[in-house]
Write the structure tokens for this entry.
Amino acid sequence: MTRDEAWELLTEYNKESFHLEHAQTVEQTMRYFAEQLGYGEEKDFWGIVGLLHDLDFEQYPEQHCIKSQEIMRERGVDERIIHATASHGYGITVDIQPEHEMEKVLYAVDELTGLIGAVVLMRPSKSVQDLELKSVKKKYKSKGFAAGCDREVIQRGADMLGWTLDELITRTIEALRTFQA
């Protein structure tokens, strides 16, 4: 599947700019981590997984990570993409456990990129470029802040990767700095 084909599929099921921007943020974050973790030759694949991970969320939030499998199989999408995208719903809506390092990264950064994005919006600079770990940690601890971003999922993702929470947050901030203002 090409990036253009993935974008076409995504935009068939997603119209809201928030969802499209989130998909692109996770796509670019996944591409960054592919390079950083020694999977540079697979960065396009990692990016497509990031782009499509919430394919069904806008139209089928109650069947998130379930309906997307059906949609993608009907389109003949590679089973590796289907498994990877579905695995980010592990323990929430599906029992498909993240296995590959790429799937663990997706699981960890999906919620975290949303949280970091919310922190950035509160900053005077509105930029990730001057964002520090301590600012994210302060908001992370505030349960009412960006309440839709599941802290347990973020922590489980860090644990799956064998990283500390601080390491995951720091590395994700670094990823976002490579493509956001």
About this structure: The radius of gyration is 15 Å. The chain has nine helices and no strands. The mean pLDDT is 96.
